[in-house]
Amino acid sequence: MRKFSVLNRPLEKCLRILTSIYMKVFMNKEKVREEIIALRKGANVAYVGSVNGDGFPQIKGMLVLESESMKVQYFSTNTGSRRVAQFRANPKACVYYVDDTKNKYKGALFTGTIEVCTDHETKAMLWRDGFEMYYPKGVDDPDYCVYRFTAQSVNYYHGLANMTLQIEEVE
Protein backbone atom coordinates (compact mmCIF):
# COMPACT_ATOMS: atom_id res chain seq x y z
CA MET A 1 0.00 0.00 0.00
CA ARG A 2 2.70 2.44 0.95
CA LYS A 3 4.73 1.79 -2.21
CA PHE A 4 1.74 2.68 -4.35
CA SER A 5 1.16 6.03 -2.63
CA VAL A 6 4.86 6.94 -2.88
CA LEU A 7 5.00 6.01 -6.55
CA ASN A 8 1.69 7.68 -7.23
CA ARG A 9 2.78 11.19 -6.16
CA PRO A 10 5.36 11.67 -8.95
CA LEU A 11 2.87 10.25 -11.45
CA GLU A 12 0.17 12.69 -10.31
CA LYS A 13 2.62 15.59 -10.56
CA CYS A 14 3.67 14.46 -14.04
CA LEU A 15 0.03 14.25 -15.16
CA ARG A 16 -0.67 17.77 -13.84
CA ILE A 17 2.36 19.12 -15.73
CA LEU A 18 1.35 17.33 -18.95
CA THR A 19 -2.22 18.60 -18.61
CA SER A 20 -0.94 22.15 -18.12
CA ILE A 21 1.28 21.90 -21.20
CA TYR A 22 -1.60 20.44 -23.24
CA MET A 23 -3.86 23.31 -22.17
CA LYS A 24 -1.29 25.94 -23.17
CA VAL A 25 -0.48 24.37 -26.53
CA PHE A 26 -3.82 23.05 -27.73
CA MET A 27 -6.59 24.66 -25.68
CA ASN A 28 -6.57 28.43 -26.12
CA LYS A 29 -9.86 30.22 -25.35
CA GLU A 30 -10.74 30.92 -28.99
CA LYS A 31 -10.26 27.29 -30.01
CA VAL A 32 -12.28 26.11 -27.00
CA ARG A 33 -15.03 28.61 -27.85
CA GLU A 34 -15.20 27.27 -31.43
CA GLU A 35 -15.28 23.67 -30.16
CA ILE A 36 -18.13 24.44 -27.74
CA ILE A 37 -20.18 26.12 -30.48
CA ALA A 38 -19.60 23.19 -32.87
CA LEU A 39 -20.49 20.66 -30.19
CA ARG A 40 -23.75 22.47 -29.39
CA LYS A 41 -24.74 22.94 -33.02
CA GLY A 42 -24.08 19.28 -33.85
CA ALA A 43 -26.06 17.85 -30.94
CA ASN A 44 -29.42 16.12 -31.33
CA VAL A 45 -29.68 15.24 -27.64
CA ALA A 46 -28.62 17.10 -24.50
CA TYR A 47 -28.51 15.77 -20.96
CA VAL A 48 -30.40 18.07 -18.60
CA GLY A 49 -29.61 17.90 -14.89
CA SER A 50 -31.88 18.88 -12.01
CA VAL A 51 -31.74 18.48 -8.23
CA ASN A 52 -34.42 16.39 -6.50
CA GLY A 53 -36.03 17.18 -3.15
CA ASP A 54 -33.38 15.14 -1.31
CA GLY A 55 -30.56 17.12 -2.94
CA PHE A 56 -29.49 14.39 -5.36
CA PRO A 57 -28.75 15.08 -9.05
CA GLN A 58 -31.15 13.78 -11.69
CA ILE A 59 -30.22 13.53 -15.39
CA LYS A 60 -32.54 13.23 -18.38
CA GLY A 61 -31.76 13.11 -22.10
CA MET A 62 -33.82 15.65 -24.05
CA LEU A 63 -34.13 16.52 -27.72
CA VAL A 64 -32.33 19.69 -28.77
CA LEU A 65 -34.95 21.82 -30.51
CA GLU A 66 -34.09 25.50 -30.21
CA SER A 67 -31.63 28.00 -28.82
CA GLU A 68 -31.73 31.75 -28.66
CA SER A 69 -27.97 32.01 -28.19
CA MET A 70 -25.19 30.08 -26.48
CA LYS A 71 -26.57 31.50 -23.24
CA VAL A 72 -30.28 30.61 -23.69
CA GLN A 73 -31.51 27.15 -24.68
CA TYR A 74 -35.05 25.72 -24.83
CA PHE A 75 -36.49 22.25 -24.24
CA SER A 76 -40.09 21.01 -24.13
CA THR A 77 -41.68 18.60 -21.67
CA ASN A 78 -44.84 17.64 -19.81
CA THR A 79 -46.00 20.11 -17.16
CA GLY A 80 -46.88 17.20 -14.89
CA SER A 81 -43.39 15.70 -15.02
CA ARG A 82 -41.21 15.12 -11.96
CA ARG A 83 -38.51 17.48 -13.24
CA VAL A 84 -40.91 20.40 -13.69
CA ALA A 85 -41.67 20.14 -9.97
CA GLN A 86 -37.93 19.90 -9.25
CA PHE A 87 -37.11 23.01 -11.29
CA ARG A 88 -39.93 24.97 -9.72
CA ALA A 89 -38.53 24.10 -6.27
CA ASN A 90 -34.87 24.60 -7.26
CA PRO A 91 -34.05 26.21 -10.63
CA LYS A 92 -30.35 25.27 -10.54
CA ALA A 93 -29.57 23.15 -13.58
CA CYS A 94 -26.95 21.93 -16.00
CA VAL A 95 -27.07 20.92 -19.65
CA TYR A 96 -24.40 18.57 -21.02
CA TYR A 97 -23.55 18.09 -24.68
CA VAL A 98 -21.19 15.28 -25.67
CA ASP A 99 -19.47 13.93 -28.75
CA ASP A 100 -18.67 10.36 -27.79
CA THR A 101 -17.19 9.37 -31.14
CA LYS A 102 -14.42 6.83 -30.65
CA ASN A 103 -11.05 8.53 -30.00
CA LYS A 104 -12.70 11.96 -30.06
CA TYR A 105 -14.60 12.19 -26.76
CA LYS A 106 -15.44 15.80 -25.86
CA GLY A 107 -18.07 17.42 -23.72
CA ALA A 108 -19.47 20.81 -22.73
CA LEU A 109 -21.25 21.21 -19.41
CA PHE A 110 -23.35 24.37 -19.21
CA THR A 111 -24.30 25.46 -15.68
CA GLY A 112 -27.16 27.85 -14.93
CA THR A 113 -30.87 27.96 -14.14
CA ILE A 114 -34.10 26.73 -15.71
CA GLU A 115 -37.36 28.64 -15.85
CA VAL A 116 -40.53 26.61 -16.50
CA CYS A 117 -42.49 28.59 -19.12
CA THR A 118 -46.22 28.06 -19.61
CA ASP A 119 -47.05 31.23 -21.56
CA HIS A 120 -48.52 30.89 -25.06
CA GLU A 121 -45.74 32.83 -26.83
CA THR A 122 -42.86 30.68 -25.54
CA LYS A 123 -44.77 27.44 -26.04
CA ALA A 124 -45.71 28.44 -29.62
CA MET A 125 -42.09 29.29 -30.43
CA LEU A 126 -41.00 25.73 -29.60
CA TRP A 127 -44.10 23.91 -30.94
CA ARG A 128 -43.39 21.37 -33.71
CA ASP A 129 -45.62 19.39 -36.06
CA GLY A 130 -46.30 16.07 -34.42
CA PHE A 131 -46.41 17.40 -30.86
CA GLU A 132 -50.20 17.01 -30.92
CA MET A 133 -49.61 13.27 -30.47
CA TYR A 134 -48.39 14.06 -26.96
CA TYR A 135 -50.40 17.23 -26.38
CA PRO A 136 -53.82 16.69 -28.02
CA LYS A 137 -55.10 20.14 -27.00
CA GLY A 138 -52.36 21.79 -29.07
CA VAL A 139 -49.96 24.52 -28.09
CA ASP A 140 -52.16 25.60 -25.18
CA ASP A 141 -52.43 22.08 -23.73
CA PRO A 142 -51.97 22.55 -19.97
CA ASP A 143 -49.62 19.52 -19.89
CA TYR A 144 -47.20 21.16 -22.39
CA CYS A 145 -44.49 23.50 -21.12
CA VAL A 146 -41.05 24.75 -22.09
CA TYR A 147 -37.79 24.90 -20.16
CA ARG A 148 -35.83 28.11 -20.70
CA PHE A 149 -32.27 27.35 -19.63
CA THR A 150 -30.00 30.36 -19.00
CA ALA A 151 -26.31 29.45 -18.74
CA GLN A 152 -23.82 31.22 -16.52
CA SER A 153 -20.71 29.20 -17.40
CA VAL A 154 -19.56 26.28 -19.50
CA ASN A 155 -16.87 23.70 -18.79
CA TYR A 156 -15.31 22.14 -21.89
CA TYR A 157 -13.59 18.76 -21.66
CA HIS A 158 -11.35 17.14 -24.27
CA GLY A 159 -8.45 14.77 -23.88
CA LEU A 160 -6.65 15.31 -20.61
CA ALA A 161 -7.77 18.87 -20.16
CA ASN A 162 -10.77 20.99 -19.40
CA MET A 163 -11.45 24.70 -19.36
CA THR A 164 -14.25 26.68 -17.74
CA LEU A 165 -15.46 29.87 -19.41
CA GLN A 166 -18.07 32.39 -18.36
CA ILE A 167 -20.91 32.30 -20.87
CA GLU A 168 -20.10 35.84 -22.08
CA GLU A 169 -16.75 34.48 -23.32
CA VAL A 170 -18.58 32.02 -25.59
CA GLU A 171 -21.30 34.30 -26.99
What does this protein look like?
A hairpin with a 6-residue loop joins β5 (92-99) and β6. Mean pLDDT is 88; it is low at 1-6. The protein contains four helices and eight strands, in the order ααββββαββαββ. The chain is an alpha+beta fold and 171 residues long. The N and C termini lie far apart (49 Å). Strands 1, 2, 3, 4, 5, 6, 7 and 8 form an eight-stranded antiparallel sheet that branches.
Weakly predicted, low-confidence segments: 1-6
For the sheet with most strands, the description reads: 8 strands, antiparallel
Structural class of the secondary structure composition? alpha+beta
Mean pLDDT: 88
Distance between the amino and carboxyl termini = 49 Å
Per DSSP E runs of 2 or more residues, the count of β-strands stands at 8
Rounded to an integer in angstroms, the radius of gyration calculated over CA atoms is 20 Å
The percent range for helix content is: 25-40%
Q: How many helical stretches?
A: 4
Write down the secondary-structure element order. HHEEEEHEEHEE
Strand residues, percent: 35-45%
**Global outline:** elongated
Key attributes of the depicted protein:
single chain; 4 helices; 171 residues; alpha+beta; elongated; 8-stranded antiparallel sheet; 37% strand; disordered N terminus
